[in-house]
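Re: [ENG-882] Designed sequences occasionally contain unexpected residues at chain ends

Forwarding the minimal case from QA. Structure tokens:
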């Protein structure tokens, strides 16, 4: 049985770690936060004292950090321990260029790299139902597939070129970010016009636009839960920036995504500690209304 490492034990990384442990792999994790190290131990894993220790212990290492600079820093520190024997799976969302740079570092140490950003949020990470957009050499992909199946019910091999996974994720985040802002605006519109949130929820969730994304998002808004729900606004803001950068490099007009990006920029300026749904509070202030199950107007 291969030994697995996870670097970055936040909401998503811890979910991945729990499912790797659950599937019987010897698992080690590293994070800068002491409470995260204690948590992985409580789930049956081992806590590392450094990134290098993760590499020395592991055959395969998942990297789930916030941005491209962190990814490259981690791989630089990790690679000496994995040299000539390991595989790195990048599940973080970064730019295609950044994951290509990360692969160059790994290649210097004869390490295989898998570009595999994820979608499915906090719940998907913890219940092992993430969607993976995986790009890697065919043999490397097949060698890792059993491990990937421990964290995902939907593994899609999107290409053999490192960077293809991140490109697909950037396109997906354009769709998701634009959908979020459409949900926010439609709920505020209905509320301002005097309709109960329950009515809006019931109609929208049984119409052609119904989705788990809508149901989860609308419920959190009407329950007035805007922080600590596992979907921090900074993550989507960063991801939409990647989408817009990809569009610029490919000469693609992005009317809807650019509006979503601007709205997320306004939202993160006002609610830097909030989750995605906190943007609704901004729209509510501008419209002098409140989205609730029962409209009190």
């Amino acid at each position: 049985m291969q030994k697995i490492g996870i670097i970055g034990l936040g909401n998503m990384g811890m979910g991945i770690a729990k499912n790797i442990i659950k599937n019987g792999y010897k698992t080690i994790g590293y994070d800068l936060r002491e409470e995260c190290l204690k948590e992985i131990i409580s789930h049956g894993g081992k806590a590392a004292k450094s990134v290098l220790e993760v590499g020395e212990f592991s055959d395969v290492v998942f990297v789930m950090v916030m941005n491209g600079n962190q990814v490259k820093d981690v791989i630089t520190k990790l690679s000496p321990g994995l040299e000539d024997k390991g595989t790195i799976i990048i599940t973080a969302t970064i730019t295609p260029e950044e994951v290509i740079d990360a692969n160059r570092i790994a290649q210097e140490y004869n390490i295989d790299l898998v570009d595999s950003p994820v979608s499915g949020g906090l719940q998907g990470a913890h219940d092992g139902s993430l969607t993976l957009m995986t790009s890697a050499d065919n043999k490397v992909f097949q060698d890792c597939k059993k491990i990937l199946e421990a964290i995902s019910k939907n593994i899609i091999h999107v290409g053999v070129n490192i960077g293809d996974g991140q490109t697909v994720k950037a396109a997906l985040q354009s769709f998701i970010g634009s959908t979020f802002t459409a949900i926010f605006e439609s709920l505020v519109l209905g509320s301002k016009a005097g309709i109960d949130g329950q009515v809006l929820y019931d109609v929208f969730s049984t119409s052609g636009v119904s989705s788990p994304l809508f149901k989860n998002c609308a419920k959190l808004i009407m329950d007035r839960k805007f922080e600590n729900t596992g979907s921090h606004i900074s993550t989507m803001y960063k991801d939409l920036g990647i989408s817009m950068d990809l569009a610029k490099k490919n000469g693609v007009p992005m009317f809807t995504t650019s509006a979503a990006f601007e709205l997320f920029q306004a939202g993160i300026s006002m609610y830097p500690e909030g989750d995605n749904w906190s943007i609704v509070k901004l729209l509510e202030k501008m419209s002098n209304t409140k989205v609730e199950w029962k409209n009190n107007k």
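QA comment: On inspection the terminal residues look reasonable. DSSP finds 13 helices and nine strands in the chain. Proposing we downgrade this to a documentation issue.
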